[in-house]
Amino acid sequence: MASIVTRIRGEPLRKSQSTTTEPAWCRRLMIGTGLVFLLFLLLMPLVAIAYEALRHGIGLCLATFVDPHARSAILLTLTVAAICVPVTMVFGLAAAWAITKFSFRGKSLLTTVIDLPFAVSPVIAGLIFILIFSGTHGYLGPYLEAHDIRVIFALPGIALATLFITLPFVARELIPIMQSQGREEEFAALTLGAGGWRTFSRVTLPNVKWGLFYGLILCNARAMGEFGAVAVVSGNIKGKTSTMPLYIETLYFEYNSVAAFSLASILTGLALVTLLLKNVVEWRMTRRPS
Amino acid sequence: MPTSLATPADAVVAPRRINQRVIPGFGLSMGITMAYLGLLVIIPLAGVFLGSLGMTWEHFWNTVTSRQVMASYRVSFGVSFAAALVNAVFGLLVAWILVRYRFPGRKLIDGMVDLPFALPTAVAGIALTALYARTGWIGQFTYFIGLETAYSKTGIFIALTFIGLPFVVRTLQPVIEDLDPEVEEAAASLGASRLRAWFTIILPALIPALLTGFALAFARGLGEYGSVIFISGNMPLRTEITPLIIVKFLEQYQYAEATAVATVMLVVSFLLLLFINLLQRWTESMGQARR
Predict the structure, then answer these.
(1) Which of residues 53-82 of B touch A (CB under 8 A)?
(2) Nearest CB to A275: which of B33, B118, B185?
(3) Lower Cβ count inside 10 Å, N or C end of chain B?
(4) Can you say how many angstroms the Cα of residue B260 is from the centroid of all Cα atoms in its chain?
């Protein structure tokens, strides 16, 4: 009976629900198990971060942000994101344009290479730049030493490792969207006399703007939150090459748990905003008439 | 989703050469793409293999099979496998209830599944450690029943389960959405029980996606560093993961040894990536066969 009632109330259920779903007790059991699993795995950590940050009062939590090391960590993290997001965007747009608007051999190999940074451990992402740029052991070490250029244990190294990690984010979002839109609209614009850049900025960009935005916020979240790759190349010098995630680690192992979790709650807030924006974008993309 | 990257336009719109001429910017976009990939990905990754070639075979072999490193493979592979397995089971359950059932808060939960993607790994690491340590909210119960959670393999398992969950759920969701209920209807009308429909119709259709999600979660678990090092306690031979071994070699300026272990991990990652690509093709071809 219950299932009939819900159906009449206009819930968007599938037709002939009774034959293609599990019995009610089974459904409830599955939903219950799934929710308990997610409660423990996803929700409890979030609550724990807020609790640990605020357990000795909001004053102590806010005191974290007076700490000059914390401030310089926040500034460094913002700097790294400000470098990585635009560069990854330009690469993502170029790669998506090349892959979706032209036919050439080795296209699937190229997309696999773009995916590589996903498959490589962040620690290795840091190691590869040490092997090249380390002053003492790197392939370019002697040259950099001679010209007094510091890459490893400095901002350029951190930026390079983060660029490697975030490389696929924008391209991965744009390629499927531009693929499904095909080339007809660009053909039309070009036939009507628009130039290449004009076609790109007036036709292609507006068509992919939500996907691009989606890729950018994911890229930004990862650039600000990357730990493993940056830990390897930064040297973690307090106040100089310590990013927010690295400074959280330092504080945590110094048993300064309130400060660690206070700084962590900023990054958690960023993660939640990212998720929110992602869902808004997904909603916009599905609503858009195609 | 199309199997190959060739668009339908290839077939419909006249010869390829004309396309190439009409849309401008091939040289520029391809140039940027290749230069950037070459400088940032291909040359640096090749540097790892080149670095290994600089070692004698004996030194390389002794490094990558030393007792501590071997123990780290067992931890990394064993725990990643176990976590990916649990994610396959619970990820299937979560994906199924999110697609097929309606319940309050479903949309919110659907959005939250991506949290492990968005939350920085170090933040996840300290949060999980706070929860599962002896004095933590969950830890006090697990330790009461005699289960060590933080600073043990169980702790690593918890971190890797957290990290891997969205891979399984997000791989399965579109495939479950694509399942045609009419096939299940037909099974029911022919007298098959719901359980039988599950094992003969639903599961076989989901297997490629389930395997893909499992492999993605496993691959991510192998490389994971940030969330694990806080909760694992990093005890040599017991709870050291392979990425941590690389970091430890680097901290002692043993660059050659770090490179050797990284080479082994890279080869495993490449093989997994190849395997995942094959699985994804299989998933897509199953999806097209259904249509």
Answers:
(1) none
(2) B118
(3) C
(4) 23
**Token pair recorded at residue B128:** 């999980």
Domain containing residue B178: CATH number = 1.10.3720.10
Q: How far does A240 lie from chain B, in Å, by closest CA?
A: 19
Residue A198 belongs to what H/E stretch? helix A196-199
Name the domain count of chain B: 2
Statement to judge: residues B27 and B124 lie in one domain: no
User: Minimal Cα–Cα distance from A69 to chain B, Å?
Assistant: 18
Q: Where in the sequence is the domain holding B19, given as residue range(s)?
A: 1-53
- Taking one residue from A and the other from B, the number of pairs with CB-CB distance under 8 angstroms is 301
For the stretch B123-139, pLDDT in tens is 999 999 999 999 899 99
- A167-186 residues touching B, CB cutoff 8 A: 167, 176, 179, 182-184, 186
* Cβ neighbourhood burial of A228 (10 Å; 0-12, 13-18, 19+): buried
3-state secondary structure B41-104: HHHHHHHHHHHHHCCCHHHHHHHHCCHHHHHHHHHHHHHHHHHHHHHHHHHHHHHHHHHHCCCC
Please name the member of A11, A93, A176 whose beta carbon is closest to the beta carbon of B102: A11
One domain for residues B33 and B134: no
Q: What is the pLDDT of residue B187?
A: 85
Tell which of A3, A39, A128 to mutate to test the B interface (max B CBs under 10 Å): A128
Same domain? B202 vs B101:
yes
B282–chain A Cβ distance below 8 A for any pair: no
pLDDT in tens, B23-53: 888 999 999 999 999 999 999 999 999 888 8
Confidence of residue A1 (pLDDT cuts 50, 70, 90): very low
Same domain, B105 and B160: yes
- Quote the mean pLDDT of chain A: 89
Q: Which residues contact B142 (CB under 8 A, 6 or more apart)?
A: B132, B148, B149
CA atoms within 13 A on the CB side of B96: 23
Q: Among residues 64-83 of chain A, which lie with CB inside 8 Å of chain B?
A: none
Set of chain A residues whose Cβ sits within 8 Å of the Cβ of B186: none
What are the structure tokens assigned to B221, written together? Answer: 């678990």
- Alpha carbons A160 and B213: distance in angstroms, whole number: 29
Chain A residues in contact with B47 by the CB 8 A cut-off are 128, 131-132, 139
Is the CB of residue B108 less than 8 Å away from at least one CB of chain A? Answer: no
Give yes or no: residues B2 and B145 share one domain: no
Residue type, A214: Y
| B63 lies in the same domain as B133 | yes
Of B255, B119, B150, the C-alpha closest to A45 is: B119
Q: Quick one: B38 and B165 in the same domain?
A: no
Q: Which residues of A touch B136 (CB under 8 A)?
A: 48
Distance CA A210, CA B174 (A): 20
More confident residue, A2 or B82: B82
Residue A147 has pLDDT above 80, yes or no: yes
Residues of B in contact with A226 (CB under 8 A): 120
CB nearest to B41's CB, from A117, A190, A231: A117
Distance CA B174, CA B27 (A): 36
What's the CA gap between A240 and A72, in Å, rounded? 7
What is the least distance, in Å, from the CA of B283 to any CA of chain A?
16
